[in-house]
Secreted protein (Anopheles culicifacies), 507 residues
Amino acid sequence: MQVLHSLVVLVSLLASFLQCTDALPSPDFGVNATINPARSEVLSEALRLLAAFNEVSDVSVTLSSGTTILTQMQTAIVSVGRKVQSSGVTLTQRLQTLATSNGPSIPGAFNPVYEAIEALNNLTTNGLNTEMMSIRAVVPSYVTQKFNEVFGDLRRALGQLSGRLQTLERDVRNARTAAGNGNPITSTHVRNNVSAKTQSDVTKALVELRLKVTEVRYMVWTMLFYLKDADSFLQDIVRQVNGFGNALSFSLYQFSEGMNRLKLTVVQYSRSAFGCSLAEQNATLVQIVPALSAIANFSSTLQQPLANLLTALTSPSLSSRVNSFVLGFDSYISGRVAASNLMRQFLLSQTCQLVRKVLLTLISFGPQNEFCFNRFSSRVFGIYELHHNCVSKCYEAELDRFTTVAQFLQHAVDVLLYDVEDLADNLSVCVNLLEGRTTCIEQYGMLYTAVLREFTKMLNDTEKLYGEEFAASAKRLDACLSSSQYTTLNAIRMNEQRLEACQQYTT
């Protein structure tokens, strides 16, 4: 009997334990009741949702160009990501708390989640106005429109989650009511009042919300990577501009060096010729002048032209002409250097707008922005090459022309030497004649009077020639550089129009 009594007591205790186990399960959704699969699924989806929200701001890019519009947008977008992430993390934490909550009341368990949903809803409605205004100040409305679209999808998903949680709350209340206040909620109460569909709908709403969060992450990440690409593009542009400046400076250096070599060649040739050959002929003429003066008809024929020639052939006179040539050359080169320095500033100012448009094409998130950016960004670099090639050809053409002028000046010096040498030789013949000197002077007088006059005129004309050539070359080079500017401007305008057409065509 005692054994039987012990068995009865044991069975009674076991039954009581089982009843207690059914009455005090793990706390779910504000009540002491097992609500599965909602509890486990909400917990697991909340963790996935937490990871999704954390990923929204889990990106970092470094901008190195120091461009204000890029850093302004970066600051705004990073702020968007962090605020959404922070609000979303709060929501996921409260979802986890809800799934394991035992109250003390059902509303007390659900309300914090509703508040977190409302907070995230308000954030995406008007809590990011400052960031959106900062973005709109830089780019057209495409970016903010895209953000508003994904925020709208996010709010709809939040609304759906809120509605399905409210349905779950209602069903849990019904289970609580069915059990009676103070009485344990059994699995039967849960089965009869909290349907599997209600629980499944909550899970689906969480999955849908997570998908919308990934859209926000896509916007934040994509915009930041666009900014990084734009920053790299600007750094490449800076390198290209510096390279263009160096190439332009080198072309100008080559031109200046080439011109200076020509100047040095002409000056050295002239001074060598004047200092040696011409000095020798001049000395011969000076020596025979007394003998020529003794000839009766010398004063009426050759005396004045020869005196003019000897004056023109003096060292101070020749040095003055050479120095005038050097000064003209130096003035010409310095003027071209000054004009060329303006070319770099011209290109920078003219390409600035195109660079900005190409840049904004990418970060504006407009239709086919990546396609249009990739297509036209490379063309910007080509403009610098185009302009440099045009300018270089201008310099090369003028250097070739001056090479010809320098050769002509050397030939002119040779002609002058030949004329003086010929005159000295022939007049020496007249002086050395024992008979017929008067006739000789008369004959040569008729021939050389015109030659001597033209000789002086030739010296003056040669000096005038290179002076006018400097002036003509300056205008010619300026015209060529101006033409290269128009060629560059045309390329810039054409690319701007095609860039706009690219965006319109793909709209």
About this structure: Confidence is low (pLDDT under 50) at residues 1-24. Residues 237-505 form one domain.
